[in-house]
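Hi R.,

As promised on Friday, here is the backbone we talked about, encoded as structure tokens. Could you run it through your design pipeline when you get a chance and send me back a sequence?
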């Protein structure tokens, strides 16, 4: 589950956001492992996040390349 693989997942998941469960299921990983990777991408400025209800969603920041 590399940075590029996670960013590529945005092309296959319908909608502008993904959740930790989307990443965990796609890569057959734990939700905690997926959350760590997604948060790392947020820390790098490639993704942003917000909690909606009980789910944290992530989206790509416009204009940021890989």
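Update: got your reply. Pasting your designed sequence below so it's all in one thread:
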């Amino acid at each position: 589950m590399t940075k590029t693989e996670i960013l590529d997942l945005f092309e296959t998941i319908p909608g502008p956001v993904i959740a930790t469960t989307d990443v965990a299921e796609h890569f057959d990983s734990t939700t905690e492992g997926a959350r760590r990777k997604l948060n790392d991408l947020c820390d790098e400025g490639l993704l942003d996040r917000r909690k909606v209800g009980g789910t944290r969603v992530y989206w790509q920041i416009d204009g940021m390349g890989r």
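One thing I noticed while checking it: Helices lie at 3-9, 20-26, 31-43.

Thanks again,
M.
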